[in-house]
Amino acid sequence: MSVGSAERVNMAFIAAIVAVATIGGFMFGYDSGVINGTQKGLESAFDLGKLGIGINVGAILVGSSIGAFVAGRLSDRIGRRGVMLLAAVLFLGSALLAGAASSSAIFIIARIIGGLGVGAASVISPVYISEVTPAAVRGRLSSIQQVMIISGLTGAFVANFALARYAGGSTADFWLGYPAWRWMFWLQAIPAAIYFLALLMIPESPRYLVARGQDDRALAVLTRLLGPTEARRKVSEIRASLAADHHRPRLSDLVDKTTGKLRPIVWTGIGLAVFQQFVGINVVFYYGATLWEAVGFSEDYALQTNILSGVLSIGACLATIALVDRVGRKPLLLVGSAGMAVSLAVVSYAFSTALTDASGAVSLPGSNGVIALIAANAYVIFFNLSWGPIMWVMLGEMFPNQIRGSGLAVSGFAQWIANAAISVSFPSLAISPGLAVTYSGYAFFAAISFFFVRALVHETRGRELEDMEG
């Protein structure tokens, strides 16, 4: 499928449905980032200690890991769009319940519900985008998912900052006598409702329809996307790619029938998913405000720093969109791994110089505060230039048609389990052994990821989904 013919036929329609699908990425980002500015409110409302904060923050990750695993398989049964509609409902319910929570237990339930939506959107949106876009621009259009994730994070940071500034603090009363931190969750209901309504206007994935034996519906969708001649050819290609297996996709397809072991491509997907989290990026996204306050920043300045990181992240993702279909996926991953390893090592050094005064206040001496801030933002840029968007691009396209849903289920589950391990452990690790050692660990995993990519990741740029091998 050449991009030229796709553009002549209906590239505008392709762009429109990609835009709708990536609202799921925005919700993913917003639901993940909103917790960043609410932790003081949670601590005071529910009388939480450090462990309690970690559990409340990490609750979303329990739901996300389940949602990612279930969504991959469920999308082979009810469709990619069906799963995204379900995710939108979960986002809406979670936003309303989290803001109204009267106890830590209810809040945790609300965040698990939201996590189910996050996990589902995180794996299905990239798959859907990959399955409706031409190979020549698939990387660019799939990378928009990460732009929307970061836009959602930044949107949450901006909303948190504005509400806290206007109310006089995240725990101060705001509209209708409710504290600002509750409104930080309730505002999420607006984009969740928009997501649901927009999904009603886009078609189902044609590759899913062929897999379900609905060739006529798939042909109708592809005709709108590509025109009648290309549509008929593409339906034949998809059908041929599925012909070797005379059954509908199932989880056992991930096992190589010859060796009885997981296919190598599945291990590569799991590795990409796990390393994306073991470099520690969600410590910045989930605990950014708390992190900067811990080294002497005011709450107001810490929230502004979050916004800066979000803006830089979006800029880096836009650079990825320009590069991913030109230089490829693997080179960007290698550059990102090297850049993150160096910048994380500098952050670790800066935090190792932290001083504590007689009152217990922590600060970074001399110019080390500025060094830490610059290095941390360089790390965020390298991540969003590479592992942030490219991991999702590759998981959405690297698996053969027969195992795409199942491969995403297993890889997505691994990604969210790794996310939970890093995010829930951080509050305790920040105290002992401390920020310097913790960030050294993230730098180590960034360095290891470089060699993982060199050895096991194969380039997918420009290849049709029907040509993927595993």
Automatic annotation (TrEMBL):
<keyword id="KW-0813">Transport</keyword>
<feature type="transmembrane region" description="Helical">
    <location>
        <begin position="108"/>
        <end position="129"/>
    </location>
</feature>
<feature type="transmembrane region" description="Helical">
    <location>
        <begin position="50"/>
        <end position="71"/>
    </location>
</feature>
<comment type="similarity">
    <text>Belongs to the major facilitator superfamily. Sugar transporter (TC 2.A.1.1) family.</text>
</comment>
<dbReference type="Pfam" id="PF00083">
    <property type="entry name" value="Sugar_tr"/>
</dbReference>
<dbReference type="InterPro" id="IPR047984">
    <property type="entry name" value="XylE-like"/>
</dbReference>
<dbReference type="InterPro" id="IPR036259">
    <property type="entry name" value="MFS_trans_sf"/>
</dbReference>
<keyword id="KW-1133">Transmembrane helix</keyword>
<feature type="domain" description="Major facilitator superfamily (MFS) profile">
    <location>
        <begin position="17"/>
        <end position="461"/>
    </location>
</feature>
<feature type="transmembrane region" description="Helical">
    <location>
        <begin position="301"/>
        <end position="324"/>
    </location>
</feature>
<keyword id="KW-0472">Membrane</keyword>
<dbReference type="InterPro" id="IPR005828">
    <property type="entry name" value="MFS_sugar_transport-like"/>
</dbReference>
<dbReference type="InterPro" id="IPR005829">
    <property type="entry name" value="Sugar_transporter_CS"/>
</dbReference>
<dbReference type="InterPro" id="IPR003663">
    <property type="entry name" value="Sugar/inositol_transpt"/>
</dbReference>
<feature type="transmembrane region" description="Helical">
    <location>
        <begin position="436"/>
        <end position="457"/>
    </location>
</feature>
<dbReference type="InterPro" id="IPR050820">
    <property type="entry name" value="MFS_Sugar_Transporter"/>
</dbReference>
<feature type="transmembrane region" description="Helical">
    <location>
        <begin position="83"/>
        <end position="102"/>
    </location>
</feature>
<keyword id="KW-1003">Cell membrane</keyword>
<keyword id="KW-0812">Transmembrane</keyword>
<feature type="transmembrane region" description="Helical">
    <location>
        <begin position="265"/>
        <end position="289"/>
    </location>
</feature>
<feature type="transmembrane region" description="Helical">
    <location>
        <begin position="12"/>
        <end position="30"/>
    </location>
</feature>
<feature type="transmembrane region" description="Helical">
    <location>
        <begin position="371"/>
        <end position="395"/>
    </location>
</feature>
<dbReference type="InterPro" id="IPR020846">
    <property type="entry name" value="MFS_dom"/>
</dbReference>
<protein>
    <submittedName>
        <fullName>Sugar porter family MFS transporter</fullName>
    </submittedName>
</protein>
<feature type="transmembrane region" description="Helical">
    <location>
        <begin position="141"/>
        <end position="163"/>
    </location>
</feature>
<feature type="transmembrane region" description="Helical">
    <location>
        <begin position="183"/>
        <end position="202"/>
    </location>
</feature>
<feature type="transmembrane region" description="Helical">
    <location>
        <begin position="331"/>
        <end position="351"/>
    </location>
</feature>
<feature type="transmembrane region" description="Helical">
    <location>
        <begin position="407"/>
        <end position="430"/>
    </location>
</feature>
